[in-house]
Automatic annotation (TrEMBL):
Protein name, UniProt field: Pyruvate kinase-like protein
PROSITE patterns, A to Z: MOSC (PS51340)
MOSC domain ranges (all copies): 17-172
UniProt entry keywords in alphabetical sequence: Kinase, Pyruvate, Transferase
Top-level taxon: Eukaryota
Species classification: Eukaryota, Fungi, Dikarya, Ascomycota, Pezizomycotina
Gene3D superfamilies: PK beta-barrel domain-like (2.40.33.20)
MF-aspect GO terms: kinase activity; molybdenum ion binding; pyridoxal phosphate binding
Amino acid sequence: MSVHALAKSASHNFSKTLVSQLTLIEGRGIEGDCHNGIHVQHRSRMHIQPPPPNLRQVHLIPKEILDAVGIGPGQIGENITTTGVDLLSLGAGTKLHFLPADESGDEESPHPVVVIQGLRNPCPQIDKFRAGLKESFVVRDEQRNIVGRRAGVMGTVHAGGVVEEGMRIVVESPGEYQALACV
């Protein structure tokens, strides 16, 4: 379980620019990213008053999902692309610990931690990136009702620090499992 790729954007572009590292800021998000803030920064929600808390500070998605639909890291706006972690099966409140790849650090040493808050709801902008792509990120039942979403997860920064490509990810499950809902 590791970090495959990292991306950010200072402006509200759909795709994000690949970078070799991200600096996470506790309670705010990613330094230099347009979604950094204690209140929601997504354009579709910025009109809400009072402004809701920002539960979408960090967008994570498994590389395996991107590979299945033929797109690369950062292209649908995610910040952290993972490998070997089934993010969609984790519960709300799960902590993702980012540790050095060489196993020199442990969970007791200071390190970045992201808390999973919920699922990313695939938005219409995905079809603007590539026509028909949004449908690849939803699961439907026989009546065509959406019963699952596969566009990654959204999280908040519990502990700040630098995340780099190749870092190990250690999953800490919450005491009680709570299924992920869209945030």
